[in-house]
Amino acid sequence: MYKQSLYEVVRPIKINTIKRLNKSKKWKYGYNKEHDVVVISKTGMIGEIYEIQNLRIALPQQPKQVHKFKSDKWEVTEYPKELNRIKTIFDWKEYPQDFKSKYINYIENEFNKREQGFWYYNKGKSTYITGTHYMYLQWSKIDVGKPDFREANRLFYIFWEACKADVRSYGLCYLKNRRSGFSFMASGEVVNLATISSDSRYGILSKSGPDAKKMFTDKVVPISVNYPFFFKPIQDGMDRPKTELAFRVPASKLTRRNIVSSDKPEALQGLDTTIDWKNTGDNSYDGEKLKLLVHDESGKWERPNNILNNWRVTKTTLRLGSKIIGKCMMGSTSNALDKGGDNFKKLYESSDVTKRNRNGQTKSGLYSFFIPMEWNYEGFIDEYGIPVFDNPDNDVLGPDGELIYVGVVEHWQNEVDGLKNDQDALNEFYRQFPRTTEHAFRDETKNSIFNLVKIYEQIDYNETHPTPIVGSFVWEGGIKDSNVKFYPNANGRFNLSWVPPISLQNNYFLKNGIRHPGNDHIGSFGCDSYDISGTVDGLGSKGALHGLTKFSMEDAPPNTFFLEYIARPQTAEMFFEDVLMALVFYGMPLLAENNKPRLLYYLKRRGYRGYSMNRPDKMWNKLSVAEKEVGGIPNSSEDIKQAHAAAIESYIQDHVGVKEDGEYGNISFNDTLNDWAKFDINNRTKFDAAISSGLAIMACNKNLYRPKPQRTETTVNFGFTKYNNKGMLSKAINK
Q: Most buried one in 236, 271, 308, 507, CB count within 10 A?
């Protein structure tokens, strides 16, 4: 049985508190700091609280009366034919009072639904959709006519409403699957907001200028044209413009009070609101002030265009000083990483709502959102808009009335199984229809030197199994060179899949007054260090540390990567101390590259030279002076490079992916696995995790690299006479 994890109903606020504030209608639309929820209710009352990808969103309280369609599912309400003939607010004002009175309640209700959202029964369950979602379903025209209701879209609009309500948010960064309807939903939102805003500008960008233009002409304009007259402002210029929609006179909200108004058309105040598109570029919309920016296909910006650079520019168009005055609606599938996907991946990862600065904002300012493909895959959504995850036991009809025989999860898996012999085709399928973010950012693999089938088997397996423990090492009592303790910590820099029993922690022995690791027989570490704390660009490569076990008789899993560390603390010394604490805690030696020797000198200075391994491919008497002093292995030698790559290749073959016994491998760190997948032996500097993990493998198999001593054979003459014993008599052999 499939168990969804996209959202859950949570109860972070006491029931009595909710009731008390509901009674006085004290819940304000926006971010509630006291309770850490984003309130999207505009009635002053809240009901259920959804947690969608770590963002808590308070929905409106369910009203006493919930609308019920005859079919017990969403239906488009028929637009009165008499009103359909009215094209503008000016035409409406020419109609007699009796006619207006007949329809004023209908018009008022539509405005209320647009503002507050709509409750209805769907398959017997009361269901809330936001006002924006209502406008999309009821009044938007798309390529197939009217959109279907989908539960996935409902959750999308709820999350988007929270982004709009939250003063800390610049908007949405949506990682999606193909054919999810984002372009139409974004187009609908542009029109919805532009037709109720004055003195505002709305912009559209896509992976190219022609794509932005196509979205404008084929989606935005038709939706605008098909709005009913009471939602549609007077438009300046052509009915179907190619570059800009300009709203000059609004359609005033019609009420009983103003229905008898005798205002002349010229007395109405204009909106002065526009919707336009721009060609794709880093500086698109630079210097503008936008109320909403739609970023379509943002994961497909290919060089020289850069979505990261553009966002740095366009972000400023959405704020005045520290105040956010506009929002961004960004959504896309991802290209291969070297075709623009890498920048979108960085932007998505920097939009994590769990990682905020002191102002409460994410690094990008956006909120990341991902809906797995099984929620929104055409052909596997029933007539109620609910995904058919598992194979149905009874007849299930789709929106078109056709039977759905198989669940989307099994169907997707069948597609995957059929592509396993074509890794690049499989990766493209993953990017188009991802079930995880790992799938969405799956890279092309044409240049990989390792077995990618096994690597990706392991990655996919890890996605559905327990994740490593995140945490930090500290000296016990804050006393350096004492024992080391490990503490789980969400902000820690270490990922652990195995913590040794207490009897194996902090083991060491003294030899000639120098500490040596006591668990050398259990495993070893590999490290790719760095020497300089800061870099010119503030980035630089990261330090990496990996721990690997080998076969032993101890209580430890064999051939298992148990520790991953990929980080760049503020100073190099902090990194060195992290490494040292890990070595002490596990009691295992370290093989590190000595071309960046500060770490090795740090260990020696602290009295831990015994933890630094000598290069295994040379005898002691063949080591250089520096190598004898601090240990380590160079990375410049071609032989070492080849041995390093061969070590990783051998480990992957034996211990990654599906093994001969049908079990999966022993590495749960997907960052390292992805580094292996992309590893370039001719350009190793970018692959910190691969360098570090490869050294750990070499350290655990040091005997394989031990040089064989050369044997010299000499002939010694002891003065004995040799005889030929052929025939009847022996004869001395004369030399």
A: 271
Among 579, 481, 562, 484, residue whose Cα is nearest residue 523: 562
Residues in the chain: 735
Residue 232 Cα distances to 129, 171, 248, 304, 603, angstroms: 22, 25, 11, 39, 72
Please, which residues have CB within 8 angstroms of residue 142's CB and are 6 or more apart in sequence?
181, 184, 219, 223
Pairing of strands 292-296, 125-129: unpaired
Work out whether strand 494-496 and strand 561-567 pair parallel, antiparallel, or are unpaired: antiparallel
Q: Domain 145-371 belongs to what topology?
A: Rossmann fold (3.40.50)
pLDDT tens-digit profile of 35-82?
Answer: 999 999 999 999 999 999 999 999 999 999 999 999 999 999 999 999
The pTM (predicted TM-score) of the whole model is 0.81
Long-range own/partner contacts, residues 54-59 (CB < 8 A, 24 or more apart): 54/352, 54/353, 54/354, 55/159, 55/162, 55/353, 55/367, 56/10, 56/12, 57/158, 57/159, 57/161, 57/162, 58/27, 58/32, 59/128, 59/158
Per-residue pLDDT at 276: 92
Q: What is the DSSP letter of 337?
A: G
Query: What are the sequence ranges of the domains in the chain?
Result: 145-371, 374-446, 469-644
The Cα–Cα gap between 443 and 341 comes to 9
Helix, strand counts (H, E) of the chain = 21, 28
Instruction: Determine the 3-state secondary structure of 663 from DSSP.
Output: coil
Among candidates 674, 599, 607, which has minimal Cα distance to 633?
A: 599
What is the secondary structure of 346-371 as a DSSP string? HHHHTT-TTSB-TTS-BSSSEEEEE-
| Single-letter amino acid, residue 374 | E
Cβ contacts of residue 285 below 8 Å, gap of 6+? 203, 205, 278, 293, 313, 314, 317
- Given a contact cutoff of 8 angstroms between Cβ atoms, the answer to whether 333 and 176 are in contact is yes
Q: For residue 97, count other CB atoms closer than 10 A to its CB.
A: 9
Average pLDDT over residues 631-642: 86
Cα atoms in the 13 Å half-sphere on the side-chain side of 99: 11
